[in-house]
Amino acid sequence: MTTPTPRTRSLAARALLTLGLLVGAVAGPAAIAGATPTTGIGNDQRPGARPAYAQIEGSGSTWSEVIVQQWISDVDSLGMKVTYNGGGSSQGRKNFAQNVTDFGISEIPYPGVDEFGNADNAGGREFAYLPVVAGGTAFTYQLKIGNELVRNLRLSGETLAKIFTNRITNWNDPAITKDNNGRKFPSLAITPVVRSDGSGTTAQLTTWMDAEHAGLWRPFFGRSGYTSYFPKKGRMIGQAGSDQMMNYISGFAGNGSIGYVEYAYPLNKKYPVVKVLNKGGYFVEPTQYNVAVALTKARINQDRKSKDYLTQILTDVYRSTDKRAYPLSSYSYMIIPTGSKDQRMTTSKRQTLGDFLYYSLCEGQSKAGPYGYSPLPLNLVQAAFTQVGRLQQADPGVDLSNRSVSKCNNPTFTGSDLKRNKLAEIAPQPAACDAVGQGPCGTATGTGKPSTDGGGGASGDAPSQGGGNVPSGGGATPGEVPAGGDVGSGVDPTTGEVVGGAVVGDVAVSATPTELTAARPGDATPFAWLALAQLLALVLLPGLLLARRGRPSAGGRR
Predict the structure, then answer these.
(1) How far apart are CA 57 and CA 353, in angstroms?
(2) What residues pair up with 144 in beta bridges, in sequence order?
(3) Alpha carbon of 553 to those of 1, 338, 549: distances in Å?
(4) The predicted structure's pLDDT at residue 415
(5) Which of 255, 402, 516, 553 is most buried by its number of CB atoms within 10 A?
(6) Hey, which residues does 158 pair with through a beta bridge?
(7) Closest Cα to residue 387, out of 350, 430, 341?
(8) Where is the composition biased (Gly residues) (predicted)?
(9) Is the confidence at residue 455, as pLDDT, over 70?
């Protein structure tokens, strides 16, 4: 083969340069630099710059794992290497205490002693809790009538507690029929699926049962309080981890089964969940909206001297009378090392952890809703920032400059008005057919979309029963505020209802939902530059190949 001539080399170089410049122009400087313009973080390793990153490792909650793994994928392009292994909250706390990991995630704080009398504490390792994501513990199930999967099952808290304490054992039980307004289900044995490992999800479920249905839970458990290890009895099936539980319930042998997982798991599998009866008299599922409304009633330990600082008290969440509130709403904690002499930590690791948390608490929260979670509200983000600051207190070499809630791209608040909870404002009221004695609604659950009289639910579902359409505001897109309007002046930020029939601008505002997205400035068409690059390649590569092959010499030699 002939060596390419200067002319062919020049053609190739110019073609490649043109390709690179065009792709760079479309992708933008941020893409070339390998950083997103909104995060403000990156692995700048110039002399005197921020510390270089080092890989960090964590383990724990499977309840939180779906969104955590997404965040890990997101920050990889920024140079941050983070690994996370589920395994359950109990294992995550244990790994952190034994210095196996750099951080843990758990739905409950260290209890001191576990159910078996074994130590369950940090083992002397200095740490802090901080909230990372909110969500709802969902009850997913497989129940078929003939070959059709029931997708709109409703159950009261008492009925659920009776199912998970073996008091109700068949799907044709009168209590289930009553919850579904007279709709009867086949005679089929109920198989409760519970976690076989130490699970924060189990702890959340049993904390709720102990608080709300103690007369059922305590005789079954043998004492008061919660447990991370569900006492498996009767027909119950044990599964380790949320994935295995979800796979069993949705599998070929799962008909008749019901279990508990974070809402992300059935949502990702497009599988139905139970609508749970709240104290407002409505059956609701754990969408990001219903969780956000419920958690406005959460009480947080604000004693900074307490070992349980920032841990949650959920009694008022369970008993919220808001029609939209999902009773089993809560959030997960990250356990981070705060000791200046922590044996696993270095400046680079602390920097990585701090920047990973900044992304997770701000930009990453925009992905919470679409992935089956609910974004953290302002007060929890502010408290978490305080805890992140302890990384710098332990090591002044850590750079946490330029970090504030006013610059935090979180969907529940804006830097210009930190008093508003945007998600609670737009949370829709439930459909009339979700009320006790009405319906049940025809819309499917497990879609991430609220069931509303305005036609919420998955595309193609049967329309909601029992109510008319909610006006969308004189032609405005549902959930959007017309230009010049001020949603704060016409919508109650707690209930989401129009106050006194108020009009915003010239258009009436209705509490219809707005789908939150993970879009960032400059990301409206994330694949546009790739499509253009492929087109350019199709045009230019044949010429490059021809230039590479070269032309025959005068003597015919190649």
Answers:
(1) 10
(2) 149
(3) 10, 71, 12
(4) 67
(5) 516
(6) none
(7) 350
(8) 453-477
(9) no
**What is the structure's pLDDT at 265?**
97
Q: Note whether 344 and 163 are within 8 A (CB).
A: no
Tokens 């400035």 appear where?
521
Q: Which residues have CB under 8 Å from 413's CB, separation 6+?
A: 377, 378, 381, 405, 420, 421, 422
Bridge partners for 258 per DSSP: 141, 192
Q: What are the tokens at 434?
A: 């979700």
Tell me how far CA of residue 392 lies from CA of 51, 58, 131, 340, in angstroms.
12, 20, 18, 9
Q: What is the pLDDT of residue 31?
A: 35
Q: What angle do CA 157, 163, 165 make, to 5 degrees?
A: 100
Report the alpha-carbon angle 434-435-441, nearest 5.
Answer: 25
Number of C-beta neighbours around residue 500 at 10 A:
8
pLDDT, tens digit, for every residue of 78-118? 999 999 999 999 999 999 999 999 999 999 999 999 888 89
Long-range contacts made by residues 294-297, C-beta under 8 angstroms, separation at least 24?
294/136, 294/320, 294/322, 294/324, 294/325, 294/326, 294/327, 294/329, 295/134, 295/329, 295/330, 295/331, 295/374, 295/377, 296/377, 296/421, 296/424, 296/494, 297/322, 297/325
pLDDT of residue 312: 84
Give the closest residue to 104 by CA, choosing from 72, 70, 59.
59
DSSP string, 418-473: TT--HHHHHPPPPPGGGBTTS---SSPSSSSS---TTT-SSTTPPPPSS--PPP-S
pTM, rounded to two decimals: 0.74
Q: How far apart are CA 424 and CA 496, in angstroms?
A: 6
pLDDT of residue 338: 97
Q: From start to end of 99-230, where are the E strands?
A: 103-106, 112-113, 119-120, 127-141, 144-145, 148-149, 154-155, 191-195
Categorize the per-residue pLDDT at 543 as very low, low, confident or very high, splitting at 50, 70 and 90.
Answer: low
Q: Which residues contact 379 (CB under 8 A, 6 or more apart)?
A: 300
Question: Tell me: the pLDDT tens digits for 486-533?
Answer: 333 333 333 333 333 332 222 222 222 323 333 333 333 333 333 444
Q: Which residues contact 129 (CB under 8 A, 6 or more apart)?
A: 109, 308, 309, 310, 311, 333, 334, 335, 387
Helices (H) and strands (E) in the chain, counts: 16, 19
DSSP character for 374?
B
Structure tokens at 333: 């904690």
8 A C-beta contact, residue 263 and residue 201: no
Phi-psi region of 338 (alpha: psi -120 to 50; beta: other; left: phi over 0): alpha
Distance (Å, whole) CA 293 – CA 287: 10
